Amino acid sequence: MLGLLRRWLRRRRLERTRIPATAWQSAVTALPLPDRLNSTERERLRDLATLFLYEKVLEPAGGLELTPEMGPRIAAQACLPILNLGLDYYRGWSSVILYPEGFLARHEYTDSNGLVHSSHRPLIGEAWERGPVVLSWADVAASPAEPGYNVVIHEMAHKLDMLTGEVNGLPPLHRDMKVRDWSRVFNDAYQHLCRELNQGRPTVLDPYAADSPGEFFAVISEAFFTMPDMVIEAYPEVYRQLRAFYRQNPLAAPTG
Q1: pTM attached to this predicted model
Q2: What does the alpha-carbon distance between residue 152 and residue 30 come to, in Å, rounded to a whole number?
Q3: Are the C-beta atoms of 95 and 56 separated by less than 8 Å?
């Protein structure tokens, strides 16, 4: 019943308003590989982005002043991974905190002796479990100019990963996908990346992907949408798994 009501409310919202055409064109231009979406996909993405901005609150921090183009630009990039999945994949959280630039994040952890430690580290993005997504606007704006790099997609991939609990690189797979296949393919690729870095060899992915399996999934999701040709060449089996999960093929020519 709640699902039916939510779908009805969303349809009503879209009947009343969508992201204005001028703002949407600017947002689409900033997308990775903007020419790969056909007209139908662009309109579906526009609907998702409109609903994203309605259901999530954009909260400025660190003295940032919001401008009209910020919301559509963030929403378009955030909704690209769920273009064929749906907005319910972003359930359980309600806000995007936006800083003008990188920010210091404070983390606490308990060591094996039970002692609590506190640390601060500079970040450009962060996703909290059952909490907000935090972004640096400067890095959001810089994303289109840097292949393989997209802080919004990175943090949204973490949110998808969190749907199954721990951030470990295993999002909720579809019924026609097998966990053992996903785990084998991603573990092999992750170990390969770690070996390449340990041997001082250049890598296709940002070295940050070797930080953990969760970061590997987020970084290679960025690459899947921004430089898919490099991903399929270096990690063809991972590409096939990502294509099955996101239900998209960034290398396919647009139709229609």
Answers
A1: 0.90
A2: 12
A3: yes
pLDDT tens for 168-189 read 999 999 999 999 999 999 999 9
Res. 230: pLDDT tops 90: yes
Cα–Cα distance, 40 to 153 (Å, whole number)? 21
Torsion of CA 247, 15, 13, 49, to 10 degrees: 40
pLDDT above 90: residue 13: no
Tokens describing residue 168: 């470990």
Do the beta carbons of residue 17 and residue 50 sit within 8 Å?
Answer: yes
Domains of the chain, by residue range, sit at 2-246
Task: Give CA separation, 200 vs 186, 196, 232, in Å.
Answer: 21, 6, 22
Which ranges in 98-200 belong to alpha helices (H)? Answer: 137-142, 151-161, 179-198
Tokens of 80: 């690209």
CATH code reported for the domain at 2-246: 1.10.472.150
User: Rounded distance, CA 136 to CA 151, Å?
Assistant: 8
Q: Specify the pairing of strand 125-127 against strand 116-123.
A: unpaired
